Amino acid sequence: MSGGERERSHVVRLVIAKRLSQRAASERLGICVRQVKRLVRAYRWQGDAGLVSKQRGRVSLRRLRASVRERIEGLLRGKYAGFGPTLAAEKLAEIEGIAISRESIRRLQIAFGLWKPKSRKARRAFLLRERRPRFGELIQIDGSQHDWFEGRAPRCALIVFIDDATGRLTALHMAPAESTKAYLVALRRHLLAYGPPLALYSDRHGVFRVNAKEALSGDGKTEFNRVTERLRIEQICALTPQAKGPVERANQTLQDRLVKEMRLRNVSSVEQAEAFFPQFIASFNAKFAVAPQNLEDAHRPLRLEPSALEEVLARREERVLTKALTFSCGGVKYAVKTKGPGLALRGAKITLLHFMEGSMQARYKDRNLPFTAYGSCAVPTSVEDEKTIDARLDAMIAGLAKFPPSTTVEAEPRLAQGCG
Length: 420
Known about the structure:
The protein is of the alpha+beta class.
């Protein structure tokens, strides 16, 4: 007998012994008086066996058929390998036409040895910040370096823009690493779709903040800072990862759901992923986004032509022209072309605009200067951090894979002994 059945047996014996009324017994057991009378009759007729549930030992009428159970096991081990209970239940209903609850899937995965229940750990408590009331007041941005293609393509960084008020994804962009250009591409998508937000909320990565403790030159701003300043967007850096919880939780959800969705669709390149993002963002927002407290949109209208927007987003550098009207950039030497001698341009400061599609303009006093490349110069070794070194090494490995491995290594000849 179970614990509840033993309690029933004890109460029923008290009722039969006239030590407890039927009304008190019904209140104690949480059943009606009529059910107490039935239990008393069953006990007098069969004893304790009359109080045991008649369903014990019987197969449930709602039990999965063996064929359905085998089909689900095959899908969980094959097509949906690695899926969590929630996502697996959704895909079984959406694609396979098998309507089964999330809890049932979890139990089956445990029985098949495909899911291990997570132990709950005591977590540090943080003061929760309420969501902003309006859509567009605060957009949280972050990048997540992950094996998004599960080996079908190199590791990439996913740039994520998510609204604080609604939890709505506003932009996704796949790039080799977290860089200024990657964030500007995602920002352009957000601007074209919604307009400039009031503020962007990020971590303290070098893209968003000058981290040099003793910077001897410069204005203390990164290139991304200058772009947001031109767009009149406030930029805020978080002190801890927990402070920007929505985008951190979104990264965890994307590392689960987006990876599985791309696997089901055999998305195996950055180009295919970029084409799939609009469909995924729509389904993600329909499932997880919430309504804001205030329905007013805080985004400002974007009153810029496409060409003007590209100029705002362009990276800018300053150069000083030599007496020969030359300058260098990125290891390449350039010469400015003029109709006359160009004496007024000697020693002039020009601004180089690097557009995201790869082109470059040389600007002097609101006019573009024609130029041509004529040589190259030495370039110092680039500085990498923990968020860009993987992309650098992957590119190097991909370059080495194009050439057959050498079988011998020739050492430099040593100087002959006795040479001065």
